[in-house]
Amino acid sequence: MVLRIASLAECPEMYGRVTAMADTWPEFLRNDLVGNAHYGRIARELPEYVLFAEDESGEVVAHAYSVPFALGSGSGSGSGGGGEGEGLGALPARGWDEVVVWAFGDLRHGTTPDTVSAISVVVAPHAQGTGLSARMLSAMRDNARAKGFGQVVAPVRPSAKHLEPRSAMEEYAFRTRDDGLPHDPWLRVHVRAGARIEAVAPASMTVAASLDEWRGWTGLPFDKEGQIEVPGALVPVHCEPARGYAVYVEPNVWVRHAL
């Protein structure tokens, strides 16, 4: 597949087509409050960190979002960043949610970033399975390197973890095949690109909502107390019918790419 890969900063006229590209995210994941508040800001406020791939027909078939932030200074500590005992290069336990807030906090305060975090690599449904995710990850790394950064980190959402939601992420993240590469396909892409699996982010995304909202998103009854397996979820959702709510706390896996 012949592709043109560019950034929204280079091609601002592509904004609508990039942001409107179809994806396969589970509906409940679209209701992470941090994502709702900040994800759309990346394309508007940090277009040089949003890459897209356009095929020969002019269709956008993939995009990759990232954000710069000041990891080494620990500038986010106490205000959306590393938190107590973290900072100075430690990656936050609240993973995806925290790094997005941290990046926009640094942007607001004029803090000089030293690291780029991947936020998403999305391939259009009909183009999946063609190696595009690896190409977009490579382009993201190249983009960060060209801007003078020495590392890219990523709170990875393992692509096959939803098939075994009861497995502990602490075990799953470090599981390997006979060839020594990660068991999980998306983690495997990162490691092949040169990343090191560093740690689990145990509370990377959180979706808390009423039972009616969960029923609407999933089509499941949500009428029993305890752990509910939901298609697309990496771990079960905790359901509290007597209190009228359910909470999903998703673990992700921090990886670090030296450039």
Describe this structure in words.
The structure is a single chain. The protein has 259 residues and is α+β, with helices and mostly antiparallel strands. It has a single domain (4-203, 251-258), classed as Gcn5-related N-acetyltransferase (GNAT) (Aminopeptidase). 26% of the residues lie in helices and 27% in strands. It is built from 7 helices and 9 strands; from the N terminus they run βααββαβαβααβαβββ. The chain has helices at 15-19, 33-45, 95-109, 132-146, 169-172, 185-192, 211-218; strands at residues 4-7, 50-54, 60-69, 115-123, 151-156, 195-210, 226-228, 237-240, 245-258. Strands 1, 2, 3, 4, 5, 6, 7, 8 and 9 form a 9-stranded mixed β-sheet that branches. α2 (33-45) crosses α3 (95-109). The protein starts with a strand and ends with a strand. The model is unreliable at 74-88 (pLDDT under 50).
What is the element layout, followed by pairings?
Blueprint: E1 4-7, H1 15-19, H2 33-45, E2 50-54, E3 60-69, H3 95-109, E4 115-123, H4 132-146, E5 151-156, H5 169-172, H6 185-192, E6 195-210, H7 211-218, E7 226-228, E8 237-240, E9 245-258
